[in-house]
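ARCHIVE RECORD
Type: protein–small molecule complex
Small molecule: 7O9
Source of inputs: curated submission
Record status: active
Notes field left blank by submitter.
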Amino acid sequence: MAEKEALALDGMESGKKNNESSKLSCCSKFCRGNLLIILLLTSLLLGVLVGFIIKLGTNMEFTDKEIAYISFPGTLFLNSLKMVIIPLIVSSLIVGMASLDKQASGKLGLKAVAYYFSTTLLAVILGIVLVMSIQPGKGRDKSEIKRDGSSQQVNTVDAILDLLRNMVPPNIVAACFETYKTREVEIPPNEMMSMMTTTMATGGTMMMTGDGSTAIMNDTMMTTMMPKKMYRSVGGFESKTNVLGLVVFSCFFGAIIGRMGKQGEPLKIFFNAFMEAIMHLVGIIIWCSPIGIFFLILGKILGMDDWEETFQQIGMYSLTVMVGLGIHAFVVLPLIYVIFTRKNPITYLMGVSPALMTAFATASSSATLPITLRSLEENLRIDRRVTRFVLPIGATINMDGTALYEAVAAIFIAQVNDFNLDVKDVITISITATLASVGAAGVPQAGLVTMVIVLNAVGLPVDDITLIIVIDWFLDRCRTTINVWGDSIGAGIIYERSKADLEHLPDPFDISDKNGFYGAENYGDYDTKL
Ligand code: 7O9
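STRUCTURE (tokenized, with ligand):
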């Protein structure tokens, strides 16, 4: 009897303890989730502050080498994120596709594509309305504006063919480190002369690729029409991961595994475990992010040159882009989120904030992808079947910020050149800017190339890209943050709208839950209903 009482007491004690410890762990979990956000915000602000104090306080000029030394911890952090991207997208897309049946993946994919296109188009329209009403380029003499770098010759048709070629890589292992690119190489003058004389001697025709037009040459024309520069297209592989190829391959591979039934099971389990292991690695990397972000920002601020002069010259342009991005991020996207989910976008913003801060610090939505995935799954409890399917595709093709930026930049350049754009031109800019942002990941040196495509489409001078390159490093950070925010909102909406479709499907990621890897941790309750 006494033993029983003792046991009962013991039980009560442990119950109390359990209760207390669960309260404590609840509290500590909440703190842990917010601790990361607090640490990240502090490191971001501290990076800016320390950077400006050193820059303005000491007036020191840093060489590129010194900057590389200062941002070294940041580079390590960036590398660690990039390190996990390939295994992450490949395994997540394979498992994502394999775990959804034909109907569910089709529905999810359709919803995603509809969301991507409509929000990107909205962003472009917003950008165009703003740049047309603010008119940052009107009355400016472009010779006053500092130029930086040189522009590049781009052939739109070749760029599109490159994109398609990259979707079907000839070697899937090589796709991890090389991308196909056709570049326009200037023909040396002596070669140009000899080509021309040969053409004349044979009385043949000649292609002039300099301005993209074709002409039949004869000797009289030759002397008068001799172009200053001629280009020839040379194709080859460049060292850059061919994400598009990997994405296409993984989607097909995953879909096939899913349809193989029992035979495909081992592969499904393998890639699933692979993905879980990578996500644990991301869990470690994420806790290094405050230090990494601090040094990345510090290095960038110390390395920037005459910010004031740049801002005086193209301040209105930058402001237009930033106002556009701001409205898209704080009004358009949250509104769409509320309409489709009836949930609080502010709590959603809190949950995604580690990814947004990383996006700002790294200026790369692909490097941010591991953190976006983890933030959505851990903080916001978005179904892994949705995040792992939708986010890698979103990071590759959904770039609202980039599309808005390109539209504003094109119209800014038109205004600087007193170039009158008619309705047809504006529509062309909207469409090309939208498509350019979709295809950006498939084109090497995308930023420049896609901008040239937009300018070419309406006949604007591509050399004037150099006017806006000076401020690009900063605007890139802002638009990347919006790109990641757009991807995240998309995943949230698609999750809410697909709950019913997912219910009847088994969750392949369940095996990890049983091991207690996930599910036990929830950083705060972000699931508040409005
Ligand atoms: C911005 F899916 C992933 F994660 F595997 C993935 C990997 C690489 C997705 C995309 C890429 C990729 O290469 N993207 C890419 C994006 C390549 C070149 C240019 C851009 C455009 O980048 C944006 C911009 O400049 O506006 C921005 N910096 O979102 O990263």
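CURATOR ANNOTATION: The pocket of 7O9 is lined by residues 85, 89, 243, 363-366, 369, 392, 395-396, 399, 402, 440-441, 446-447, 476, 479-480, 483 (CB under 6 Å).
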